[in-house]
Design a protein that fits this description.
Layout (H helix, E strand, L loop, with lengths): L16 H9 L4 H11 L4 H8 L16 H20 L22 H21 L3 H14 L6 H21 L3 H14 L2 H4 L5 H9 L1 H18 L4 E6 L6 H11 L3 H4 L2 E8 L3 H17 L4 E7 L18 E7 L9 H14 L3 E7 L8 H22 L5 H20 L12 H9 L3 E4 L3 H13 L6 E6 L2 E6 L2 E11 L1
Parallel strand pairs: 1-2, 1-4, 2-3, 4-5
Antiparallel strand pairs: 5-9, 6-9, 7-8, 8-9
Helix pairs in contact: 2-4, 2-16, 4-5, 4-16, 5-6, 5-7, 5-16, 6-7, 7-16, 7-17, 10-11, 10-17, 11-12, 11-19, 16-17
């Protein structure tokens, strides 16, 4: 199938006659098509030129050319659009506008890339059948996918592997197959493995995420710089951390305060950590921070505010002084409240009453909150494909921490986005435009990131020697961190009117 001919094979027809008739009644949604077309049209011109070249006599000339995971996904998306368009042109006139940007030839692809493009096509086709509730056909396509992907393969094969797991779980739940086992499995998994809770505890894997992959440090250094600039005149600083995790960001803040003019005027640095679970882990974080503060002569007070639920958070739980500058820090916290708008509103009202001089917000720059499964699936596939590509750049394929990152943190997020619905679906990342609209309701004003904050982020990019791939972009006043042109994180700074 793949010999010297690098053309991609057509997806085999596994329809029954009945299912073929159903397919005409249930095409992929136009919204999902537009999402896929948006990603597919983004392939860089240099890649387009290379894949459109006719084959030369030298059949090994392309062996050294390896496309990125993002490019593979985009090319597969264009193939999917082309195949779907040709099969449905007669019945779906609106889709005639969706044109394939590469004509019909992919002779420039290496054999490995060809296989990977085909693999992603199978996955997209399976997801589309599941969207249309054609579960038998979707399951057959997925079975073929499962034969070609692997948790230890290249980034494309690995990300497809975890999406296959999630899609298989969704099919089982939708069809009632092994329903008791499936429901118990999902409930137990998310009770035993909470993504946000897991990040509180310092482990070798968390340390590797922080040390080996630049995005954590990029957002922390730029965000801490923004806080320093907004509290620089204060003798008492009160940091309220909505999700402290390891607390490494506050060692950076303390180092910056110790090396600046604050050293002579700082009377007290107070950190209040808000938690709903894992109090012992937060206490350990506090002990580490207090110990570190002592070594550099920073007067630190560490407090914990534990609530069973964010809706129980009240202003009088905080020890506030009238002469302190309050800064609120939120890193990957607010997205967890998106399924529960009442709790989100309650939290924001409390934050507003605290009257912070600055609020720093870091969130994933992705759209995983669509109520429509296939839309969510496509967005998540491209987002996590980018993450897997990034991890592949910074970590060896056999690195144990890499395997844990993908098999736990990434896998559980993918499963939640793809297989869960309703209140079970906790991973609901949204983009900065959504946050702007939300914060605007509470009278929050977005602040411009200073040149010093952007300089700090650029220092991290240079430290990791990844400037070719890791780029910084501005979306209005918000800093967006990208990998090979795909947004990954957003960092924004706010204050109340």
């Amino acid at each position: 199938m793949f010999g010297g001919d690098s053309r991609i094979t057509e997806i085999p027809d596994v329809d029954s006659d009945v299912e073929s008739k159903k397919e005409k009644e249930c095409p992929i949604s136009l919204a999902a098509f537009e999402i896929l077309r948006k990603y597919s049209s983004g392939v860089k011109k240099m890649k387009r030129d290379s894949v459109m070249e006719e084959p030369s006599c030298d059949t090994t000339s392309n062996e050294g050319m390896k496309l990125s995971t993002d490019d593979i996904l985009r090319i597969a998306g264009t193939r999917f659009i082309q195949c779907f368009d040709s099969h449905h042109a007669a019945d779906q006139a609106p889709f005639m506008m969706l044109r394939h940007p590469f004509e019909s030839s992919f002779y420039g692809l290496s054999i490995e890339d060809t296989k990977d493009v085909e693999l992603v096509e199978f996955l997209l086709s399976s997801a589309q059948k599941v969207e249309c509730q054609q579960f038998e056909r979707g399951s057959k396509l997925l079975s073929h996918c499962e034969l070609l992907c692997s948790a230890t393969g290249n980034p494309v094969q690995r990300v497809v592997y975890y999406f296959c797991q999630a899609l298989r779980e969704r099919i089982d739940r939708e069809t009632g197959r092994h329903i008791v086992l499936s429901l118990q499995s999902i409930q137990q998994t998310f009770q035993q493995f909470n993504l946000d809770e897991a990040m509180v505890t310092i482990t070798a894997t968390y340390h590797a995420i922080h040390q080996d992959i630049p995005f954590c440090q990029l957002s922390i250094f730029a965000g801490i710089q923004a806080i320093i600039e907004n509290v620089k005149e204060a003798k008492k600083i009160h940091i309220i951390d909505l999700g402290i995790r390891s607390g490494s960001q506050w060692t950076i803040l303390m180092q910056a305060l110790a090396s600046s003019c604050h050293e002579s005027q700082l009377e007290l640095l107070k950190i209040t950590a808000i938690g709903t679970t894992s109090k012992p882990a937060i206490e350990e974080t506090g002990e580490r921070l207090l110990s570190f503060a002592k070594t550099i002569n920073i007067p630190l007070s560490f407090k914990i505010v534990m609530v069973s639920d964010m809706s129980d958070l009240k202003q009088d739980l905080f020890e506030l002084d009238s002469d302190e500058a309050v800064a609120v820090y939120s890193s990957h916290v607010l997205r967890s409240l998106l399924p529960e708008p009442d709790k989100m509103e309650s939290l924001m009202k409390v934050v507003r009453n605290l009257d912070p001089c600055v609020m720093v917000v870091t969130e994933m720059e992705a759209n995983h909150n669509s109520p429509f499964f296939v839309n969510r699936f496509i967005e998540a596939l491209f987002f996590y494909g980018t993450l897997f590509d990034c991890i592949d750049f910074f970590m060896e394929r056999t690195e144990p921490n890499r395997m844990v990152i993908e098999a736990t943190y990434c896998c559980q997020a993918i499963r939640n986005i793809v297989a869960a619905e309703g209140e079970e679906r906790k991973i609901r990342n949204v983009k900065i435009d959504v946050w702007r609209a939300f914060f605007g309701r509470f009278g929050m004003e977005e602040l411009e990131l200073s040149s010093s904050s952007i300089y700090q982020a650029n220092l991290i990019v240079d430290r990791f020697s990844c400037r070719t791939y890791c780029t910084l972009e501005m979306n209005g006043k918000c800093l967006v961190l990208c990998w090979k042109g795909t947004p990954v994180l957003s960092l924004s700074v706010w204050r109340f009117h």
